[in-house]
User: What shape does this take?
Amino acid sequence: MQLGRVVGTVVATRKDERLQGAKLLVVRTQDPHGKDEASYLVAVDTVDAGVSDRVLIVTGSSARMAAGLKDVPVDAAIVGVIDAVEVGG
Assistant: This one.
C-alpha cells in the first residue's frame, strides 16, 4: 500500500470497455508524514475520493482485487480515504 493525495482527475472518452463508468484520479504519492514525493499515478477510485483527499493506494495485482475491478486492466486503485496517520518514533 502507498499513501497519496488526490491532485486531479482524468477524462478519457476512449478507453477499454471494462473501464466504462470508472472514475480515474491523479494521485501524488506521499511519505507517512504527508510530504509530497516526486511520483504521480493514475488510479481507479473505488471509495468516492475527491481532489485533496489523502488516500490509500494499492498497485499491481492487488489493484485488480479491489471491489469491482476483477478482470479490469488497472495497475492502481484507491481503496481508502485516510482520516489520520500516526508514526511512532
Remarks:
- The chain has one domain: 2-81.
- The chain has a mean pLDDT of 94.
- DSSP finds no helices and five strands in the chain.
- The two ends are 20 Å apart (CA to CA).
